[in-house]
Amino acid sequence: ELNNVNFEYDNFKISNVSFKLKEGEKLALIGANGSGKTTILKLILNLLKRKSGVIKAFGLEVNKKNEWEIRKKIGFLFQNPDDQLFAPTVWEDVAFGPRNLKMSQKEVEIVVEWALKSVKMLKYKNVSPINLSWGQKKLVALAGILAMKPKILFLDEPFANLDMLAVKELLEILENLRK
């Protein structure tokens, strides 16, 4: 929930942004390049500091004290999947988050397989992310987020650089996940 949120940086300004998202709802932030869509997501994650206004997530005010509790519940898919992928194989990349959440090896195996199946990328588990197409990289990055079981997904320009077939496939995957 955002109430009258304001942010300024150099000549860039966001003024009086307010909205509330309820469980199960979808929301699209639409605007021109540079209009502040990504900035709003970063404000919610407390990666940027608002000038004024109130931001709450999961009943907690977004601030330094609560940021890690909030961040554990939010999955953030970057616009460029290359900024998210770094391990030598798809499997290792998707397993990174669950391992850092201190899941047991068995839990990691279960959740990684589920996440890769959810995005139709299990057959690529032993492939290096470097050898994947842009759309496949996006799906692997999404699987890495899903493996951490977030309560909400933030997708920054999820359809950028995807052809219509890949957009359709990603929309189907997202709808299946929402259900």
What do you see in this structure?
By secondary structure, the protein is an alpha+beta fold. It is 37% helix and 18% strand. It is built from six helices and six strands, in the order ββαββαβαααβα. The protein has a four-stranded antiparallel sheet, with no helix packed on it. Strands 5-6 form a two-stranded parallel sheet. α4 packs across α5 (134-146). The longest helix is centred in the last third of the chain and has 15 residues, at 164-178. The radius of gyration is 17 Å and the shape is globular. The chain starts with a strand and ends with a helix. The relative contact order is 0.14. The mean pLDDT is 94.
